[in-house]
């Protein structure tokens, strides 16, 4: 594993991620674990295979108003997190493992990483009621732990519509609490990377 201290969404960051499976998309192939890959995994395999074959970033990525709000508000969540925990959150960079990698939102030395989500009020309220991280991001969080080698990841849900003391709620996932999931991820990822190679071979042939 090699760590690159690059800014997210920079040209250097895009180049490092090119043709690699990344933790933000691990849920695509972890769906239906133990069964055949579904269409989301096959589509993702095709995207990666095309990036390898062409050396270009996939063109079918998209943004929407929720993603735009997230990019705008995540720095606020990070500042609140630093104030709440009396820590500095360092740049997440890119943790590269050759065929796959990961870009957490931040690093908390020496053992942690962070993942912030700026969400709508109903989603934030559901997270508060659940008292745990949003399960939609489970495999991204497990992926953070796997790819970075860190001991914990803090999931922060942020919504500016809430009172100040409830705008950011944080739930921690510890490595020791997801050892089974870490093993499942590594097994399934190897199978997925084989699918990527198979897809690439078909494109080239």
Walk me through this protein's architecture.
By secondary structure, this protein is of the alpha+beta class. The chain has one domain (2-204): Alpha-Beta Complex (Lambda Exonuclease, Chain A), CATH 3.90.320.10. 47% of the residues lie in helices and 18% in strands. It is built from seven helices and nine strands; from the N terminus they run E-H-E-H-H-H-E-E-E-E-E-H-H-E-E-H. It has helices at 11-17, 26-30, 39-54, 65-85, 121-130, 138-148, 179-204, and strands spanning 2-4, 21-22, 90-91, 94-96, 100-102, 106-108, 112-118, 152-158, 168-174. The strands form two sheets. A five-stranded mixed β-sheet has the order 3-6-7-8-9. A four-stranded mixed β-sheet has the order 1-4-5-2, with helices on both faces. The longest helix has 26 residues, at 179-204. The radius of gyration is 17 Å and the shape is globular.
Q: Which class in CATH terms?
A: Alpha Beta
> Would you tell me the structural class of the helices and strands?
alpha+beta
User: How does the overall form come out from the CA principal axes?
Assistant: globular
Mean pLDDT: 94
Instruction: Report the order of strands and helices.
Output: EHEHHHEEEEEHHEEH
The count of domains is 1
Binned strand content:
15-25%
The number of helical segments is 7
**Helix content, binned percent:** 40-55%
Summarize the structure.
The chain is built from 7 helices and 9 strands.
Topology:
Elements: E1 2-4, H1 11-17, E2 21-22, H2 26-30, H3 39-54, H4 65-85, E3 90-91, E4 94-96, E5 100-102, E6 106-108, E7 112-118, H5 121-130, H6 138-148, E8 152-158, E9 168-174, H7 179-204
Parallel strand pairs: 2-5, 7-8
Antiparallel strand pairs: 1-4, 3-6, 4-5, 6-7, 8-9
Helix pairs in contact: 3-7, 6-7
